[in-house]
Amino acid sequence: MSSYDDAAQRYFAAWNATGAELADAVAKAWIEDGAYTDPLTEVRGHEQLVAAIAGVHEQFPGFVFRPLGVVDGHHDVARFGWELIAPDGSAPVAGSDVVVLDTDGRISSVLGFLDRVPA
User: Fold this and answer.
1) Quick one: average pLDDT of 105-114?
2) Which of 31, 1, 15 is CA-nearest to residue 103?
3) Backbone torsions φ then ψ of 75, nearest 5 degrees
4) Is the per-residue pLDDT at 2 higher than 90?
5) Residue 105 near residue 28 (C-beta atoms within 8 A)
């Protein structure tokens, strides 16, 4: 498994974590001042990342993120697709992310794109 795959697995673990596990999962995935930007939000640092992810779980209770396709990468950059899966198995939200990794393989920044969103 590549460092890109490892980073993506930690990323999805963070997005799927809730409660007391969330802060630890974010710390494993992102560097301390790591950033996340998509069309709806822009946050930096573990505290803001935790709040943003918790907010998504409040908006979409019971949903989980799953990878869509393979992780591709070069140098310190990886990209991958994802879907947000509802409890009924549907996937009303999908997107793709580009992540920049530090020398330890943790995420320093994410640029997220929303490819499918509910009306």
Assistant:
1) 97
2) 31
3) 50, -120
4) no
5) no
Looking at every residue in the chain, the average pLDDT score rounds to: 96
pLDDT tens for residues 16-70?
999 999 999 999 999 999 999 999 999 999 999 999 999 999 999 999 999 999 9
Q: Provide the domain limits for residue 83.
A: 3-116
**Secondary structure of residue 61 in the 3-state scheme:** coil
Measured CA to CA, the distance from residue 94 to residue 64 in angstroms comes to: 11
Query: Residue 106: which CATH number?
Result: 3.10.450.50
Instruction: Give me the number of domains the chain comprises.
Output: 1
> Measured in Å, how far apart are the chain's first and last C-alpha atoms?
37
How far is the CA of 102 from the CAs of 4, 69, 72, 80, in angstroms? 11, 23, 16, 17
Q: How many other β-carbons are positioned within 10 Å of the β-carbon of residue 115?
A: 12
pLDDT band at 118 (very low <50, low <70, confident <90, very high): confident
Q: Would you give the DSSP letter of residue 20?
A: T
